Amino acid sequence: MFPKALEYHVAPAVNSFIDWLVVEHAVFFDAVSMGILSLLLKVNRFLIWLPWWSVLLAVALLGVYATRRPLAGIFLGLLLFPIGMFGLWPMAMETLSVVITAVFLALILGVPVGVLMAERRGASLVLRPLLDAMQTMPSFVYLIPAMMLFGLGKVPAVLATLIYALPPVIRLTELGLRQVPQAVEEAALAYGATRWQLLREVRIPLAMPSILAGVNQTTMMALAMVVVASMIGARGLGQEVLLAINRIDVGRGFEAGSSVVLLAIVIDRITQNLARRWEPPTR
Amino acid sequence: MAFHYALSADLGPERREAAHAPPLSSAIEVRGLWKVYSRQKGDALSPGIVENPEALEVLEKDRRAVVAVRDVAFSVEPGETFIVMGLSGSGKSTLIRCLMRLVEPTAGNIAVNGRNVTAMTSQELVRFRRTEVAMVFQHYGLLPHRTVLENASFGLKLRGEEAAARTGKAKEILSRVGLEGWGRSYPASLSGGMRQRVGIARALVMDSPILFMDEPFSGLDPLIRRELQDELIRLQRTLRKTIFFVTHDLSEALRLGDRMAVMRKGSIVQVGSPDDIIADPADDYVARFVQDEREQVARAERRMAERRAG
Predict the structure, then answer these.
(1) CA-CA to B119 of 20 to 30 Å: which in A255, B5, B65, B307?
(2) Closest by alpha carbon to B196, among B217, B182, B176, B212?
(3) Number of domains in chain A
């Protein structure tokens, strides 16, 4: 047994810290919340406004572009059809808007942080354990404080998704930048590249396949998170799954669950093939 | 990964004052150049270390420091092809990188085109690299995601030239190095020799008076190597650039060089015309280096004598 005398709790400190944040900085968190909400609502409104067939068409065209195979693209588009058939189209669009918003924010935050980590060894040393923590901390642990700070509903869902989905894009951006061959960087410097030019003309383009692999991972993580996020009031496919579980309605759960899977497959194949398109030609 | 961001490095004020520009007549003028690498992380070596031979010797013996370039001095005349030869690890690649501060020298003065390279700020250095010098690398250093044309005009892009002008110049140079019609290919689809032609085109398009070449033909097979050497000789006939050429291949040095320097363990052991060095090697090291060539010359002379006698 661990001796009782050595017991020490940080729980009260964490509690009072969160309380302090809620009380003292409500204005700040409200502002962040409003910002995210307005972005999310815009995305959502747009997706709902789109006729269902145009979404299928857009996915198919994107699929053709990404995979360079017409049949594969059309197949990807058709994969979304059962979601509508199950009557889950609006929920799927709701889920998609949370994912899109979270991934968008993850890219805006993640790519610069990844660049910073690749450029500065110190930043990498400090941030790496933090990223590990973000990915391994059980999500319910930060779901509750997120709810306390940002209220119920979509915004904490986006944030929880963001916390979970941010690390891969950061990690893979850093990795991609570190893998750029030294000979190429040296040549660019020898021709008078400034640090910024080196980054923009050489390092980022060469790291792009890796960065896009990060986008793919991030999107998958985000999609995995939406069911959990529905527990704090985010609507969408996750909520359907939750309802089905509560009512022990296996069939309904299957419909909602497979809709998440279909969405995941479509997004995965498109982002993966987009990443491949960015690889430098080998022939 | 000890990559040197020479751009971010800045020289201390004391070194900037100490460096005076040597006379303008030479294209490259190097005096007392040292590069000492520290083996230990964060164990910064002060430039003063080179004035304390005993301390430096102790550091070397304890394997805490490696002297890559040791008190090197030479000058290169305009229009001259100057060869630096030595075995791998003799410091020749470090030396060529010091000349444009891709590697930051520990001590010494470098003047290129009468401009004091050692005293340049990072902005001046960028401008210097964009206009005065161009470099060809052993491993090409081409951008895999850019076409041959884009690679050839990369330096012009960094310099901020207009797209149309870039394309025009690059196309002209590509045809001069025998790559007409290859502009839209990617480096991965080219053979080693053709990639290095792109590397040469990228350097020539800059129209800089000085060309640095770091073992440009060492990775190529003998026939292609010879072909590119001939090409360089042909180009040089019209271009008349100052070429600073590093190689470990004596026959290459003899074919291309007006003068050559032999390096060993960071020092230059002999400078002279190739003929002088073959005829009169300064020490055993140089003698071993040029042995094959001496034997060939001797054989040829013997044959000539026989023919005259017979």
Answers:
(1) B65
(2) B217
(3) 1
How many Å apart are CA A203 and CA A173, to the nearest integer?
A: 10
Of A246, A232, A173, nearest in space to A204 by CA: A173
Measured in angstroms, the CA of B296 and the nearest CA of chain A are apart by 37
Read off the tokens for A119: 């450029």
CB of B188 within 8 Å of any CB in chain A? yes
Which ipTM was obtained for this model?
0.82
Tens digits of residue pLDDT in A70-96? 999 999 999 999 999 999 999 999 999
A190·B188 Cβ contact <8 A:
no
What pLDDT band is residue B25 in, cutting at 50, 70 and 90? Answer: confident
Domain assignments of chain B as residue spans, ordered by start: 13-132+208-309
Q: In the beta sheet, which residues pair with residue B76?
A: B28
Of the candidate CATH numbers 2.60.40.3950, 3.90.180.10, 2.170.130.10, 3.40.50.300, the domain formed by B13-132+208-309 belongs to 3.40.50.300
Angstroms from B127 CA to nearest CA on chain A: 7
Which chain B positions have a beta carbon within 8 Å of A280's beta carbon?
144-145, 186, 188
Assigned domain for A99 exists: yes
Helices (H), chain B: 13-18, 53-61, 92-99, 122-131, 148-152, 154-159, 163-176, 192-204, 222-239, 250-256, 274-279, 284-309
Distances (CA, A) of B309 to A23, B209, B299, B300, B304: 110, 50, 15, 14, 9
Please give the residue range of the domain that contains residue A272. Answer: 10-49+80-277
Residues 6 or more apart in contact with residue B93 via CB below 8 angstroms: B214, B215, B246
What are B177-212's pLDDT values in tens digits?
888 889 899 999 998 889 999 999 999 999 899 999
Question: A191–B6: do the CB atoms touch at under 8 Å?
Answer: no
pTM exceeding the 0.90 threshold for the entire prediction: no
Assign A279 to helix, strand or coil: coil
Torsional sign, CA A75, A77, A79, A84: negative
CATH of the domain at A140: 1.10.3720.10
